[in-house]
Amino acid sequence: MTNITLALGDITEQRVDAIVNAANSSLLGGGGVDGAIHRRGGPDILDECRDLRASRYGKGLPAGRAVATTAGRLPARWVIHTVGPVFSTTEDRSATLASCYSESLRIADELGARTVALPAVSTGVYRWPLDSAARIALTAVRDMGTSVTEARFVLFDQRAYDAFETALNELPPA
Ligand code: AR6
After folding, report:
1. What is the tens place of the pLDDT at every residue in 113-137?
2. Would you tell me which of 42, 76, 140, 154 could form a disulfide with 71, CB atoms 3.0–4.6 Å apart?
3. How far is the CA of 124 from the centre of ligand 1 (A)?
4. Is 35 exposed, middle or buried (0-12, 13-18, 19+ CB in 10 A)?
5. To the nearest whole percent, how much of the chain has pLDDT over 70?
6. Which CATH superfamily hosts domain 3-170?
7. What does DSSP say about strands 115-118 and 18-23: parallel, antiparallel, or unpaired?
8. What is the pLDDT confidence band of residue 173, given thresholds at 50, 70 and 90?
9. Is the model's pTM score more than 0.90?
10. Distance 49 CA to ligand 1 centre (A)
């Protein structure tokens, strides 16, 4: 049974087995949470991302997929990089956003991670509305059969925290 918890704060400070990164398909870093993870984690993470690109993801990691590296200087053991979909008003990309979470937890299981911190994927640069993203994220994690004992959503500001809190309280039964 996975306990879903919410925290207000910076994901790079979480003492958990694995943290999830909202990356882009290049895996070569960027702004937002991705930039913070690489800045704080140091160059080893980027080196591993480069190797993954060279060996497996020459065309980039597709949206909805996830891949792990070690966590460099971060107080976690692994970083699980996932690529969220860019929000679209003309195409429903909810399944891809849900897949970011289920794939990340699948990778966490493979690694043997029990505690995982997750950001609100796609809600920054990729412009997904918070309320909708929160519902999709929480449902995907709740419905995933996994050995992860704690899935901690780490929300960067009060607005995001409130959106996740409301969505968690209103989550329909499984
Ligand atoms: N800890 C927790 N959450 C954070 C942090 C942090 N340190 N910093 C930002 N957030 P974004 P995306 C929140 O833009 O929308 C990057 O350039 C932020 O407030 O990081 O999936 C990548 O390289 C927002 O709620 O990710 C991609 O190119 C959430 O994290 C692109 O952005 C996600 O915002 C991915 O865009």
Report:
1. 999 999 999 999 999 999 999 999 9
2. 76
3. 5
4. exposed
5. 100
6. Leucine Aminopeptidase, subunit E, domain 1 (3.40.220.10)
7. parallel
8. confident
9. yes
10. 18
